[in-house]
TrEMBL record:
Keyword field contains Signal: yes
Coiled-coil regions listed in the entry: none
Regions of compositional bias (Basic and acidic residues) in chain numbering: 50-62
Annotated protein name in UniProt: Sporulation protein
InterPro entries cross-referenced by the UniProt entry: GerMN
Signal peptide interval: 1-27
Length: 360
């Protein structure tokens, strides 16, 4: 998976909310009060200079205050659970701290500090009142939970594991996660007994879908990004599918799953046309993958335009692959595509530093 997506130094959601504004008595007044016109005021040149200087100073002070407030927060991906039960990254502005890993997990605790920040339909996953400490060494994060950690429902166990693992491994300094409770290593989860093993990584998957797999032993995992939410409030959902071991190229496998789309009962969407095809093997060079599609990749044939959701799904999915940093999309061997804003895609598209921020 591309390292760029983990960089932090997990914010807002892609969910776009609409505001209904109502005026109170704006046109309902029967009689207006009479207001005397302002007296004519004449400023001397010296007074004008003082006024302008004061205004500039006030503006500069306001700008500095806004900059200071911005620098006191940091965008962090929190893997929260949506109304359909999917573990989904939502980027929120958290207070700046040196203990970013510990803070990220504290914001996953139910009824904790994240409560007032939760996007509509989302919830935190770690049980109420759980105390957490994180120790990071050699890219392994050892997380110790208090006894409250075991107070969850069995059906939430995998969601908790995935949320913790994917939230922590967004950071460059963490690749693996180990769990403890009251200082004792956990070899399995305390409620439903899900095996944990030596460590947890993103290779274990997220929102795992095996619905179309007959024999899981001859498959391997590949994570793709579909669209969740509703009109005007869409966001990207990572889903780990199982694909045949016979497919040697994971890039091919991922694109095939994007074109195939999510299962009918998944509540997820996909904007890829079923006729989309790769016209050749993906070419990978220096972290850049070049894809050559047929014209079915276009969302608008006459303008040679690619849907932003299609482009975003491609970039998010392929930068999950080890060593892939950016994506170039061509059609019939030519790089003549435009995005929905009418801009030509002349440069490779990289993964955003944060996912589901409200803008890609």
């Amino acid at each position: 998976m591309s390292k760029s997506k983990y960089k932090k130094t997990l914010a807002s959601t892609v969910v776009a909310a609409s505001l209904l504004l109502s005026g109170c008595g704006l046109f309902g007044m029967e009689e207006k009060e009479k207001i005397d016109p302002p007296e004519e005021v004449t400023y001397t040149e010296e007074q004008t200079e003082v006024t302008e200087k004061t205004t500039n100073n006030e503006k500069e002070a306001a700008d500095q205050t806004q900059e200071a407030e911005t620098s006191e927060t940091v965008k962090t991906e929190l893997y929260l659970v949506d109304k359909n039960g999917y573990v989904v990254p939502q980027t929120l502005e958290l207070p700046k701290t040196e203990s970013v890993a510990t803070q990220a997990l504290e914001y996953l605790v139910k009824n904790g500090p994240v409560t007032e920040m939760l996007p509509n339909g989302f919830q935190a996953v770690i049980p109420d009142d759980t105390k957490i400490s994180v120790n990071v060494k050699d890219k392994v994060a050892t997380v110790d939970f208090s006894s409250e950690f075991k107070d969850y429902k069995a059906e939430d166990e995998l969601k908790i594991l995935q949320s913790i693992t994917w939230t922590l491994t967004q950071f460059d300094s963490i690749e693996q996660v180990k769990l403890q409770m009251n200082g004792h290593p956990l070899e399995e989860m305390p409620v439903n007994g899900t095996p944990i093993g030596d460590e947890l990584t993103r290779k274990d998957g997220i929102n795992i879908d095996t619905s179309q797999v007959a024999d899981i032993t001859n498959t391997k995992p590949v994570t793709v990004y579909y669209i969740g939410g509703e009109a005007d409030s869409y966001y990207f959902v990572p889903v780990t599918k199982r694909v045949s071991n016979k497919i040697e190229n994971n890039i091919d496998a991922a694109i095939n799953e994007l074109i195939k789309g999510p299962s009918v009962a998944s509540h997820l969407l996909n904007e890829f046309n079923s006729d989309v095809e790769l016209l050749g093997e993906p070419k990978v060079e220096n972290g850049k993958v070049t894809l050559n599609f047929n014209e079915s990749i276009f969302g608008s044939f006459d303008k040679k335009m690619i849907s932003q959701n299609v482009l975003d799904s491609l970039v998010l999915t392929l930068t999950e692959q080890q060593g892939i940093e950016s994506v170039v999309v061509t059609v019939n061997g030519k790089a003549e595509l435009m995005n929905e804003e009418g801009k030509k895609l002349t440069e490779p598209v990289t993964r955003p530093e944060n996912v589901n921020t409200g803008s890609f």
